[in-house]
Every structure is written in structure tokens, then in C-alpha cells.
Write a structure and sequence with these properties.
The protein is of the alpha+beta class. The chain is 47% helix and 17% strand.
Length: 773
């Protein structure tokens, strides 16, 4: 019997090739899209779960005023472990950049962490070579990943080999780690012991409690119950311990524990590790995956029911000769399962073929998992046909629940309108990010990080920069206005509330800074070499003036104290974005300092390559022991929004495919209705109805369904769009036109989709449909 069912199913597929291709293709594309999305979602949710003790590890988050960070004071973890029995272990991490040299191979490495000796006890990163218990105990040791071992030592055994670090010290490889899993929120190539800098880092050496610099993780004891109430109690204890070292009158800080498994998706703090994800994107794509799967299933059902009328007599004859409902269910369910299985195989093939391209688009390394799907409604619908009505040709009364089918179409176009609207808003927001006025001109800004001997040769550096016309337009600053972190509450001004503890980010620049970045001074002046007293003066941004109860016009000349250094406000600069636009502009204080950190050059149009070569020559002359490195401010800004750009690209692709699948389903339903009303259309044409009137009659029902979908989709889309836009402090505002255009586009797409079957039915010879009457 099963063999017979399969034979009939294959015959039907071969006989109706066009129908089978559309049916299988729609389901396969839908399943492939859902598989891709669910693989991505699964990967995002899997971060850090490879750690054996993942459920026991938390990181400490701190908040002062509205400034939230993932860093802590150097002495805090050890103090917590000593005074809180539930804390089994702690580890601190401090990011750094170092130059490593082995033989003739010398590179600047940016993915470097200093870590406590407990690093391998708390985390479960796989150690391929070395002793896990002692690998971090040697101050002159280093752990490196498998890729780095191959990069510096080739196929030779790296364990025990010597490195030259920063041209002034030697380190020995005490362990080789497996490459860091891609689903780790900590991404590194080298781990150095914190003990190697314990005597040179003031925060560690002097146990400074009011300077936040270190990422800190705690491992709770297995016997501790991590209930919400117990974790809240731990949070209060951390705050109380901190208050014993720093009075709340000096600095009021709240602390809380964040689960390690939440670090990747629940971040976005003012200071945090780079490359983290966003839980909202996971939610969005999970819903999109469900949408696409539902649309694909609806498409499958509608196409199957559309063909049912052409098999109605077959069903009737089978029942007349004794076939029961169970046998018919078995036959048509078997056909549905066969089509679904073929679609699944094709979907897996699509995923397998396109997975590398998807990984490039999503910035992931994903593997394939199977997804099951089946279609049962067409089988139950067909098996329920009444043979007498079928054989009589009563096409209008047979054929399942019209309300149900119409509901499927409405759901399809609700999804389509929501995705169309979402695609438009995502595009507008990303375009807004690219073209937003940041308060400075980001183009043609080339920068050179100062390293090694450059710190001791700053006068020579500036002399060489001035001599070359390509580099003469330069500024030296402690940091770039790209993602300025850090801040202080040690700011005083006239009229300040003694209880106020506002965090002010700070930036130290030279006299050329405002000209190089082409920033606008609202009042007062910029720093100038003509005023020797500027070394003790300050420039503030608009936001700072507002916070201090001043205006841009009356702030100039007011006294200001920073870190107890008294000075005067000499200028107010127009607000500029110095952090990603997800964060609102904060009050900033800018001081004059020639200490350096980064050289920024505004290049001449068309001479960027020549300027890079000039900087390379200067670096080679003054700092030959260090590799030359440079960057572009606009590229760094663009890199901040990689996650949003990838999300936008993925969203666009899947939205287009979902709409395509919806159209296939709508085509199926239009074919079904055209088949149902074939005799009616024939009668209408015999009585003189024009082709236009017939097409209008067939399209009216779909138009009503889409208008219902619009009424449902618009509020859903509005809510979803505004939820996403809340992530950005600066964003576009979706107007009614977006929703109108999306709805109109859905209507036009629907009309175009149904037009083929409608026109075909309208121009058909009525004799063909009425000859049996």
C-alpha cells in the first residue's frame, strides 16, 4: 500500500511539473531561510556556554550616576573573595597591545590580555601544551593560541620558546591554547600574567579603589543558590564592601553580577569589550524565522488546495470503489510528507552550498542542523471531500474552510507588510548613521598610534611632521573622538550641587585639534600657543555647559576645577559624537596636553597613499624597533556599526525571500479560486462580461484580504520598529508615509501575482468550461 502511495505521489509530481516545482521550491526556500536564521540565533545564544563552570561565573558591572561600565578597581576582586564565602574564585583581565618578536618575525598584536594566575582555573579554554596548574604562575611567561604558535614558530613546538616583547623584555611560552572559540565574548591571542606588571601598574601596586580599569569575573561556589534574591544580596554586599574603602560622598557606585552567558547579548555599556551582540537582534531574527516558516507552510497548503479541485474526481472515484477516509488520509498525507521531505533535502543542499556565503555576510562560523517540517492540512482537506458532490461537479461547495484559507493569506501579507516596513526603516537608519553630522569632519583623517621610542622623541616627531607638506596638517591627542571611554566625577564649578556625582569623559589635545577635526566653537576660543596659560584652562561641550547650569554664551570665563586642578573655561565647542550613536552625547571636558598618544593627519585629496608612506618613513626613522601601523577615523567609525550593517543585510535578504514565498502562496490561492469559479466566469462571459470585469471580480476578494492585513500589520510594524530604534540615542522617525508605501507595495505585489491566473481565466474560451453542462 505504501509503495502504491509513493508511486502515485511520484506520478503526480512528474505529471504536474510546474506545480511541483513551485510547491517544492517555495517550501525548500522557506526551510532554508529558517535554517540559516535559526543557526545564527543558536550561535548567538551559545556564547560562553562551552565553559565547564559557565553557570557559576559572573562578571562585575559597576554604575556611577548614568555611567555604566564592565570594569572595576584593581583590588576589588581579591577583597570580595576574602570577605564573601560564596565567592570561590576571581580573575581580573586588562586589555593591552604588545609587539612580539621571534627570530625575524615581528608583529604588533592587539588581542592581548593581562590576567591573574587563576585565569585557567575559572575559564575552560582548552590548553593543548603546558601545565594548567602552573602555566600562569611565572611572571615572564605567556600563553598563546594555536594560530599564534604557528604564526611565530611554524610547525615547531612552541612550548618553552622565547619571545621578545615590546623590545625590552623576554617572555617564555608556558602554554599553547586551542584557538579561542568564536562563541566566546573574550577574544584574544595572547595571555600575559598580571604579576609581570604588578610593580609598575599604579592601580595594582597602590591598591587604588577609585580608578576603574580591570574586567573582573567571579566564580561562585557550587553550593550557592543563584536565585534572584541571593544574587541581589551579593550585589548589596559588594556595594557595602566598596563603601568601606571609598565614601559615597566621594563616589557612589552600584555593583551587580552579570551571568557570563549573558555578557555577549546583554552589554552595550559605556566601557565594555568590543564585538558583543544584541539580544534584540536575536529576538527579531527568531521572529523572522518563524514568520518565514509560517509563510512557507501557508504557501505549501494553498498550492496543495489549489490543485485539489483538479483531483476531486479522483477522490470521488476512489471513495465509490471502496476507499475509506483513513486510506485517503494515508495517500495524501504520504504525498505531503514526500513533497516536504524532498523540500527538506533541497533546503539542506541550499544551506550546505550557501553556508560559506552566509557566514561571510553574518560574520560567523556556523554548521548545519536539520529542521523538520510537514504539511498535514492538504491531506485532511482532500480526504474529507464528499464523492457525490465531487462527481456532480459541485466545485463551489467543496474545498475546505474558506475562512481558514483567507486567514492564511491575511497572515502572509501581515508578515510581508511588516517585513517591507522593517526593511525600509533599517535602510533609513543605517543611511542616517553613515551620513549623520557627528560634529566634526571624519573624512581624510589618517592616524598613527604613538608607540615605543616615539614617546621619548615627541619634539623630533613634531618637527618631521611639520617639515613634510603631506603631514604638516596634524594634531596630537590622547585619543580619537570615535569611542572615547573613561570619565571622572572630580569636577567642580560654581554652583555645583555638593551631592552631584556626574561622570565627565575627558580628552586632552593640542592647539591644532579643533582645526584638524573642523569642529565648531560656539563661544570663546580654542587653545592657542599664544596663550601660555592655556595649559591650565579648559574647553567644554554644549552638554557640559547645560549640566553645569550654564549656556554656551555665559560659560566662557567661569572657573572650573578638574582633578583639583583649577582653571578657566575658555571656550564651548558644539556637541560632537565621540561614542557610537546608540549612546547620547555626554558632558565632556577637554584639556590642553602635549603628552600625546595618537597623531592625526588630515590628508590632502588624492594624496592618502603618499601620506601613509610619509608617516611610515617618519615611524621608521624615530621608532625602527616597532612595526608601522595606522588607521582611518572614518573606517573606525564604520566598524562600530558592523553589527547593525550585518543585521540590515540579513534582514533585507530574508525579507525579500519571505515576500517571494508569500507571492507564490498567493498565486496558488488565485489559481484555486480561478479553478473554482471557472464555470461562473464562463457564464459571465457568455452573458457579455468584459475581460476587465472578470479580472476585477477575481481580484476584489484579494484586495479586501490585503486591506485587512494592512490594518493588522501597521500597528505591529510600528511597535516592532520603535522597539528597535530605541537602541539608538539618535535615530530616524518613521512617518506614516513608510507604512503607506509598504502597504501599497504589498497591494501592488498581490495584484501582479494574481493577475496571471485572473487574466488567463478571463480570456479563456467559455465553451471549454461549459461544454459539460
Amino acid at each position: 500500500m505504501i509503495k502504491n502511495y509513493l508511486k502515485i505521489a511520484f506520478r503526480n509530481i512528474i505529471r504536474h511539473k510546474a506545480f511541483a516545482v513551485i510547491n517544492i521550491a517555495g517550501l525548500a526556500i522557506g526551510m532554508a531561510c529558517s535554517i540559516f536564521i535559526l543557526l545564527w540565533v543558536q550561535n548567538e545564544l551559545s556564547y560562553d556556554r562551552f565553559n565547564k563552570n559557565a553557570n557559576e561565573i559572573y562578571r562585575i558591572i559597576a554604575k556611577a550616576s548614568d555611567f555604566t561600565v564592565a570594569i572595576n578597581p584593581a583590588p576589588m576582586p581579591a577583597e570580595l573573595r576574602a570577605k564573601m564565602p560564596m565567592i570561590k574564585n576571581t580573575v581580573r583581565l586588562w586589555p593591552s597591545t604588545s609587539v612580539f618578536e621571534a627570530g625575524e618575525k615581528k608583529f604588533e598584536e592587539k588581542r592581548v590580555f593581562y590576567a591573574d594566575s587563576t585565569f585557567l582555573q575559572v575559564f575552560s579554554y582548552k590548553l593543548l601544551q603546558g601545565d594548567r596548574a602552573t602555566a600562569m604562575n611565572t611572571p615572564d611567561g605567556v600563553l598563546l593560541t594555536q594560530d599564534m604558535a604557528k604564526k611565530y614558530f611554524g610547525s615547531n613546538d612552541a612550548l618553552g620558546k622565547m619571545f621578545r616583547r615590546d623590545n625590552n623584555s623576554s617572555v617564555i611560552v608556558t602554554g599553547v591554547l586551542a584557538n579561542v572559540p568564536s562563541n566566546s565574548h573574550l577574544q584574544f591571542d595572547f595571555i600575559l600574567p598580571l604579576s609581570s606588571i604588578a610593580q609598575t601598574n599604579d592601580n595594582i601596586k597602590n591598591q587604588i579603589w577609585d580608578n576603574f580599569d580591570f574586567y573582573a569575573y567571579v566564580q561562585l561556589d557550587k553550593t550557592f543558590n543563584p536565585s534572584a534574591a541571593n544574587i541581589e544580596q551579593v550585589n548589596r554586599q559588594m556595594k557595602d564592601i566598596y563603601k568601606t574603602h571609598i565614601s559615597e560622598k566621594v563616589l557612589k557606585v552600584d555593583f551587580w553580577l552579570q551571568p557570563l552567558t549573558a555578557a555577549h547579548l546583554h552589554s552595550g555599556y559605556q566601557i565594555d569589550l568590543p564585538g558583543n551582540g544584541n539580544i534584540q537582534y536575536v529576538d527579531i531574527f527568531f521572529v523572522v524565522a518563524l514568520f518565514i516558516l509560517v509563510v512557507a507552510c501557508i504557501n505549501f497548503m494553498n498550492l496543495a488546495t489549489a490543485r485539489s479541485a483538479r483531483r476531486a474526481k479522483e477522490v470521488g472515484l476512489r471513495k465509490v470503489v471502496g476507499a475509506g477516509r483513513r486510506q485517503l488520509v494515508g495517500q495524501f498525507l504520504g504525498e505531503s510528507v514526500l513533497v516536504s521531505f524532498i523540500s527538506l533535502l533541497i533546503a539542506i543542499g541550499i544551506v550546505w552550498l550557501l553556508l560559506p556565503a552566509f557566514n561571510d555576510l553574518a560574520g560567523k562560523t556556523l554548521s548545519i542542523h536539520l529542521l523538520d517540517i510537514s504539511g498535514s492540512y492538504p491531506a485532511l482537506f482532500l480526504s474529507g471531500l464528499q464523492p457525490v458532490k465531487v462527481l456532480k461537479g459541485n466545485m463551489k461547495t467543496m474545498g475546505g474552510n474558506l475562512i481558514f484559507r483567507n486567514g492564511l493569506v491575511v497572515v502572509q501579507f501581515v508578515v510581508s507588510i511588516v517585513l517591507l516596513t522593517g526593511t525600509a526603516i533599517v535602510y533609513r537608519q543605517l543611511n542616517f548613521i553613515r551620513n549623520m553630522d557627528l560634529g566634526f569632519d571624519k573624512s581624510n583623517l589618517l592616524y598613527l598610534p604613538m608607540a615605543g621610542e616615539m614617546w621619548n622623541k615627541q619634539q623630533a616627531l613634531k618637527a618631521e611632521l611639520k617639515q613634510n607638506p603631506l603631514t604638516a596638517n596634524y594634531s596630537v591627542t590622547t585619543g580619537l573622538p570615535v569611542n572615547t571611554d573613561g570619565g571622572t566625577v572630580e569636577v567642580d564649578w560654581e554652583g555645583k550641587d555638593p551631592k552631584s556625582q556626574i561622570v565627565f569623559p575627558t580628552l586632552y589635545v593640542d592647539e591644532n585639534f579643533f582645526d584638524i577635526f573642523q569642529m565648531k566653537m560656539l563661544s570663546g576660543r580654542a587653545f592657542s600657543p599664544q596663550f601660555k596659560s592655556d595649559s591650565g584652562n579648559y574647553i567644554i561641550n554644549e552638554k557640559a555647559a547645560h549640566v553645569m547650569g550654564m549656556t554656551a554664551s555665559n560659560a566662557v570665563g567661569r572657573p572650573l576645577s578638574l582633578h583639583n586642578y583649577k582653571g578657566t573655561i575658555i571656550g564651548v565647542v558644539k556637541d560632537f559624537n565621540y561614542k557610537p550613536i546608540q549612546q547620547a552625547i555626554e558632558p565632556m571636558i577637554i584639556g590642553l596636553d602635549h603628552g600625546g598618544g595618537t597623531v592625526v593627519v588630515r590628508t590632502q585629496p588624492g594624496k592618502t597613499e603618499a601620506t601613509i608612506k610619509a608617516l611610515a618613513n617618519i615611524s621608521a626613522d624615530l621608532n625602527p624597533a616597532y612595526p608601522f601601523s595606522y588607521g582611518f577615523v572614518d573606517q573606525d567609525l564604520a566598524n562600530q556599526y558592523k553589527g547593525e550593517q550585518r543585521m540590515g543585510s540579513l534582514f533585507n535578504v530574508f525579507a525579500i525571500l519571505a515576500i517571494f514565498i508569500s507571492c507564490m502562496g498567493l498565486y496558488g490561492l488565485s489559481a484555486f479560486l480561478a479553478e473554482q469559479r471557472k464555470k461562473e466566469i464562463g457564464v459571465r462571459k457568455v452573458l457579455g462580461a468584459s475581460v476587465f470585469k472578470v479580472i476585477y471580480s477575481l481580484s476584489t476578494g484579494f484586495t479586501k484580504l490585503i486591506l485587512i492585513a494592512v490594518l493588522i500589520a501597521v500597528p505591529v510594524a510600528w511597535f516592532a520598529i520603535n522597539s528597535w530604534l530605541k537602541n539608538f540615542a539618535y535615530r530616524v522617525h518613521p512617518g506614516w508615509m513608510i507604512f503607506f508605501i509598504a502597504s501599497l507595495a504589498a497591494l501592488v505585489i498581490a495584484w501582479l501575482t494574481v493577475s496571471y491566473e485572473s487574466v488567463k481565466a478571463a480570456i479563456a474560451n467559455p465553451v471549454q468550461s461549459l461544454r459539460m453542462e
